[in-house]
Design goal:
Length: about 400
């Protein structure tokens, strides 16, 4: 997948990778004339990186909770918490799914997702919070929605910066093995990873479903989760309920730009910018038009993207036909993205722009009334802005990724 059509956690991972690269460049530049040994330089880079990543992760967690504080997430009839719980119970029969579980699921989701960033913020509770996070995201990864396990995969890896300083050796448990055993374990890891990739690619090429490829990835992730949990175990047992190590240095001021970018990305829906890849996954949040459903966050109307909404009444395009059936609204931005990217000459779209009640028939062939629909967006907008389909403004917002 290419930008902007990537999952929320993949976009967050891209921001984390950018912060890592930025930290490497900044620390290397600052120590260029000191000629530090490679071991000391790596330690300096890691210690500068830790507060940047921890801050970014806490900000991301807080936005996932903030977006869920809306009337429709608290509505059991449409709440993503309830629908995801039912889907999970269908895959894992031992999980109860009766009506009495609805409110505990909604409240429990909010409390756990709020407890994790708060617990990670306070040094004294970080170890206990990492344990909570490992359990919560292992449970979440059982959900059959494609790729959720990869979100858990990312967080399992990032928890390391909360547990280990540059003086710690996370792999000490494995170094007790004989050299042959260490080599065998490394080869096994490479083999399992390669086999999982091969089987996923083969599943796609032989006409297998996405669910088959997703299942292969899930079982590979389970092995990774077990290995990483075993790696963390000595530190968790050693620390008990005591504090995790603090970063040894204050990060360079320029590096705070990366947590600031994470904050800006999460705040985008309330700035009238993008509504997808803003950490608003499975949140029922709606900020578009007059349908803002948040409990207290008001949208700043700095841009017009979320106010220029379109109802598709008919089309011969397969994607647009889905919106005709569901009666979802689109932003004008997304309609223009779709129509300008289509190559078929007989494309037509009948639509109604909410700010103009007149029905309009757009035809690509001939003299279109709205020639703007043929113009692609500038690359810097098309790669950054993306808006999810919007449920009818007079009805509750259904669950969307």
């Amino acid at each position: 997948q290419r930008l902007p059509f990537v999952p929320n956690h993949i976009f967050f991972e891209m921001l984390i990778h950018a912060s890592m690269i930025g930290t490497v460049l900044a620390v290397t530049a600052c120590n260029w004339k000191k000629h530090l040994p490679s071991v000391e330089l790596r330690a300096a880079i890691y210690e500068q990186m830790r507060p940047v990543i921890t801050s970014s992760l806490i900000i991301m967690y807080l936005f996932t909770v903030l977006h869920k504080l809306n009337w429709d997430f608290l509505n059991p009839a449409v709440s993503c918490a309830v629908s995801m719980h039912k889907e999970l119970a269908a895959s894992v029969p031992i999980i109860p799914s009766s009506e009495w579980t609805q409110w505990p699921t909604i409240i429990g989701t909010l409390l756990i997702e709020l407890a994790i960033p708060i617990g990670l913020w306070w040094r004294a509770t970080r170890v206990a919070t990492v344990i909570l996070g490992l359990l919560f995201h292992w449970f979440l990864a059982l959900h059959p929605h494609g790729g959720i396990y990869s979100f858990s995969h990312l967080l399992y890896a990032l928890y390391a910066v909360f547990l280990f300083s540059s003086h710690d050796n996370p792999f000490q448990i494995w170094q007790r093995m004989p050299k042959f055993g260490v080599l065998a374990a490394k080869l096994a890891a490479v083999f399992i990873f390669g086999l999982a990739c091969f089987l996923q690619i083969r599943a796609y090429r032989t006409g297998g479903s996405f669910f088959t490829a997703n299942a292969i990835g899930f079982y590979a992730w389970l092995l990774f989760a077990l290995w990483l949990t075993a790696t963390y175990a000595p530190m968790l047992l050693k620390a008990g309920w005591r504090s995790a190590p603090e970063p040894m240095v204050r990060p360079l001021r320029i590096l705070w730009i990366f947590p600031a970018l994470v904050f800006f990305n999460g705040y985008c829906p309330y700035l009238s910018l993008k509504t997808t890849t803003a950490f608003s996954m499975f949140a029922n949040i709606r900020t578009e038009g007059t349908g803002n459903n948040h409990l207290f966050m008001h949208r700043l109307k700095l841009f017009g993207y979320q106010d220029d909404l379109v109802e598709v009444l008919g089309s011969n395009d397969r994607q647009l036909q889905q919106y005709v059936k569901t009666k979802d609204l689109l932003t004008w931005f997304e309609l223009r993205r779709i129509t300008s990217s289509r190559k078929r000459e007989n494309l037509f779209v009948k639509y109604k722009r909410l700010k103009d009640p007149e029905d309009i028939l757009f035809k690509k062939k001939g003299a279109p009334k709205d020639a703007e629909l043929l113009k692609p967006h500038p690359w810097y907008l098309s790669r950054f802005l993306v808006f999810r389909p919007i449920g009818r403004l007079d009805k509750p917002m259904p669950c969307r990724h």
